[in-house]
Design brief:
The complex is a heterodimer of chains A (126) and B (280). By secondary structure, chain A is an alpha+beta fold. Chain A is 36% helix and 11% strand. Chain A has one domain. Chain A is globular, with a radius of gyration of 16 Å. Chain A starts with 5 loop residues before the first helix and ends with a helix. With 280 residues, chain B is of the alpha/beta class. Chain B has one domain: Glutamate synthase, alpha subunit, C-terminal domain (Pectate Lyase C-like), CATH 2.160.20.60. In chain B, 15% of the residues lie in helices and 23% in strands. Chain B has an 11-stranded mixed β-sheet, with helices on one face. Classes of the chains: A alpha+beta (126), B alpha/beta (280). Strand 3 of chain A pairs parallel with strand 1 of chain B.
């Protein structure tokens, strides 16, 4: 998908079945796109070096998605979408957008403000 | 009930928020912090090494000892004589280098989020089940349901594995250097599976999404699993991934085949409830 605003500006009703039911079927991005490491950001490189990995590891499954017509990244730890701040400019191709989504997700998950910090305090057993 | 009210989570007000549906929006500043590990994780040093002789230890004792060593800052732990015990090396939510000098039993290294684990022997059923992140490398063979419900990370078996590999896979990469049994990729939802050897019957049966690469012969495809088109990016990805773990395919990466969901079974649309009513 070369148009970065495709799913933001359109309803995603392409197939006849989608038009019939008035709803897009499936993910609103290419979930099977494998990452191209030439787009990796310096922050992500620091993160994977720290973890002792040689590639993106679990971040291979993180993509830039869309929630309520806004760019967002899905955080599996809270089972919810993290909306991408408005001031972040999105590049024109999915590979670069996905790298931005991965960086934002790591910053959010590792933050002291992440909801899991409170859940951990409340429910940890040992 | 009185006991529940006194729980810490109630004191923290976690049960007072209005829950309005599944979707949440969390706003944050991208500049607010640059931590590279979870806020509550142990600060370990991977050059600080420790070893455990597990010969006379129970699985619980082994897991507790690993945790204690991480608390003390050890980032490189070796377990001698694991004696094929079940449920060992589980629930590690930390960066860590962990080596098992022999085989593990059932459900080894499940529910992990971050560690790099090396197993020098074999593993039993469901190794790496519900794994979230990190790497697990097994030098020999693995049992059935290898990587059941895996969500992320690299799970690598250099030998062959049993049936139902990656059942209910929701992410991550499963790599098998040898062959895999029947129903591999059953109900796969996301992620990648790389089988260098042959695959048994019903590969990718009822898969919703995700990708399966196979280097050898396939006994049969499952319902809604279809052949996909290999791209240059797929070949680049496969070669770099397999190089990482020193695994070679018998026929070369260019001759591997790609399988994806035909998406004919997808039934997520709004009409589902009304259609069901008509049927019932």
């Amino acid at each position: 998908m070369s148009d970065k605003g495709y799913f933001i500006d359109n309803e995603g009703l392409d197939s006849s079945r989608e038009q019939e039911i008035g709803q897009h079927i499936g993910y609103r991005y290419d979930v099977n796109l494998v990452p191209d490491l030439k787009y990796i950001t310096p922050f992500l490189q620091k993160y994977i070096d720290k973890m002792g990995w040689k590639d993106l590891n679990w971040l291979e499954d993180v993509h830039m998605g869309y929630e309520e017509d806004r760019a967002a990244v899905f955080d599996r730890n809270i089972n919810g979408w993290v909306t991408v701040p408005d001031d972040i400019k999105l590049p024109d191709n999915q590979q670069e957008r996905d790298m931005i989504a991965r960086e934002l997700l790591i910053k959010f998950q590792m933050s002291e403000k992440h909801p899991m910090v409170d859940l951990n305090k409340a429910y940890r057993k040992f | 009930m009185e006991k529940l009210k006194n729980e810490k989570s109630h004191e923290m007000g976690l049960h007072k928020e209005a829950l309005k549906g599944r979707t949440q929006q969390r706003f944050f500043s991208a500049e607010e912090g640059e931590n590279l590990t979870y806020f509550n994780s142990f600060d370990v040093d991977t050059s600080k090494k420790a070893s455990i002789d597990a010969k006379n230890m129970t699985p619980r004792e082994i897991n507790t000892k690993i945790r204690e060593l991480m608390q003390q800052g050890f980032g490189d732990i070796t377990i001698d004589n694991p004696m094929s015990r079940h449920g060992v090396g589980v629930g590690i939510l930390n960066r860590l280098n962990l080596t098992f000098n022999d085989s593990l039993g059932y459900f080894g290294c499940g529910l992990i989020d971050g560690p790099n684990i090396h197993i020098k022997g074999r593993v039993g059923w469901s190794c790496g089940e519900n794994m979230m992140a990190g790497t697990v490398v097994i030098e020999k063979n693995a049992g059935s349901t290898f990587g059941a419900a895996i969500r992320g990370g690299d799970l690598v078996c250099k030998g062959s594995v049993g049936a139902r590999t990656g059942i209910d896979q929701k992410g991550g990469t499963i790599i098998v250097g040898g062959d895999t049994g029947a129903f591999s990729g059953f109900m796969m939802q996301r992620g990648r599976m790389i089988i260098c050897g042959n695959a048994g019957l019903n590969l990718g049966d009822s898969m919703y999404d995700g990708t399966i690469y196979v280097g050898g012969e396939i006994e049969g495809l499952g319902v809604d699993c279809v052949q996909g088109e290999m791209t240059d990016l797929d070949i680049y990805y496969l070669s770099s991934k397999l190089d990482l773990y020193g695994i070679k395919t018998p026929n070369g990466i260019e001759k591997m085949n790609k399988y994806v969901s035909g998406k004919q079974l997808w039934n997520y649309d709004k009409l589902e409830p009304s259609e069901k009513k008509l049927v019932l």
